[in-house]
Design goal:
The chain is α+β, with helices and mostly antiparallel strands and 192 residues long. The chain has a domain at 16-140: Gcn5-related N-acetyltransferase (GNAT) (Aminopeptidase), CATH 3.40.630.30. It has helices at 26-32, 36-43, 50-64, 120-135, 150-158, and strands at residues 16-20, 72-78, 84-92, 104-111, 140-145, 162-169, 176-184. A seven-stranded mixed beta sheet has the order 1-2-3-4-5-7-6, with helices on both faces. Helix 1 crosses helix 3 (50-64). The longest helix has 16 residues, at 120-135. The radius of gyration is 16 Å and the shape is globular.
């Protein structure tokens, strides 16, 4: 475990660089959400407005963002040209239920369509998970997806996550049926 006063840092991986998004990164959040295909399994394909980013998503990010724990949205940028391709969510599982455990972390990702199919989500999740294993006492990482979102589910399986259950993901923005996948700490050698 690292010094509790240090800021969580994700080292660059083979092709990606990471930066914890700030509450002022409205434009970057909005940019990813403008493609209906990116938003298909999130809200049926509706682009997110800047107003919704400012009034809904930034306050949500502010609620769970924690630099020391590594919680928040991690910007993914290509090392080759520093172009922004999307983000990875890191926060305690069931954060908005009020009944969460900091030892079980939810990971999620949203990438621009032109970044799909290149393994960037997998590379980013591996780098962040490896850092979580090294810098914290986190016991497991989780990911959820609509059962029709076969691309995300394929990423989860490729990361070594195992299917746990199908259930309702409870959230103030709406409850959704999802498949739950998990990777426990004792399988960390998968990311060596």
């Amino acid at each position: 475990m690292t010094d509790p006063n240090s800021i969580f840092f994700v080292k660059p991986s083979q092709r990606l660089r990471y930066r914890l998004l700030s509450l002022s990164d409205i434009e970057l959040l909005w940019e990813v959400d403008q493609d209906p295909e990116v938003m298909q399994y999130i809200n049926g394909g509706q682009p997110t407005s800047r107003r919704e980013i400012e009034e809904v998503f930034i306050p949500r990010l502010a609620a769970y963002r924690n630099e020391r724990a590594g919680w928040g949205l991690w910007q993914l940028s290509l090392s080759a040209d520093n172009s922004y391709i999307g983000w990875i969510l890191v926060r305690p599982m069931d954060f908005f239920s009020g009944n969460f455990d900091v030892n079980h972390i939810e990971l999620g990702w949203r990438l621009k369509k032109n970044a799909w199919g290149h393994g960037y989500a997998s590379e980013g999740v591996r780098a962040i998970t490896k850092t979580l294993w090294q810098a914290t006492t986190v016991e497991s990482v989780w990911a959820i997806a609509d059962k029709e979102n076969t691309r995300s589910i394929a990423v989860m399986k490729g990361l070594g996550m195992t299917y746990v259950k199908t259930g309702i993901h409870r959230d103030p923005l709406g409850d959704h049926p999802v498949d739950y996948f998990c990777l426990k700490r004792n399988l960390e050698s998968h990311y060596a």
